[in-house]
Amino acid sequence: MATIKGAIVVDTERCKGCNLCAVACPLDVIALGKEVNAKGYSFAQPNKEEACIGCASCAIVCPDGCISVYKVKL
Fold it and tell me: Quick check: pTM over 0.85?
C-alpha cells in the first residue's frame, strides 16, 4: 500500500497572519514566521514539512484561501 505525504504552499503576499491555520493543524506543521510580507503581516509558513499528512485542515480554515495542499504517493 502506498504511503501518502502532504505538502503545503502558502501565498505569502495574501496571508494576513491570522494564525487560524496553525491552530487547525493537528501536527503543528504550519506556524507564523518572523518575516513580514509587503503589507507588513507575519505570514504562515511550514516549519515541519516532513510531518505533513495532507489533511488540508489549514487550507479549509484559511479565510483568504492562501494555502494550497498537495498529496504525493510514495
Answer: yes
Question: For residues 22 and 17, what is the distance between their CA atoms, to the nearest angstrom?
Answer: 10
Contact status, residue 42 vs residue 16, Cβ threshold 8 Å = no
Q: Say if residues 31 and 44 touch (Cβ distance below 8 Å).
A: yes
β-bridge partners, 50 = none
Map out the domains of the chain with their CATH numbers: 4-73 (3.30.70.20)
User: pLDDT tens digits, residue range 8-60?
Assistant: 999 999 999 999 999 999 999 999 999 999 999 999 999 999 999 999 999 99
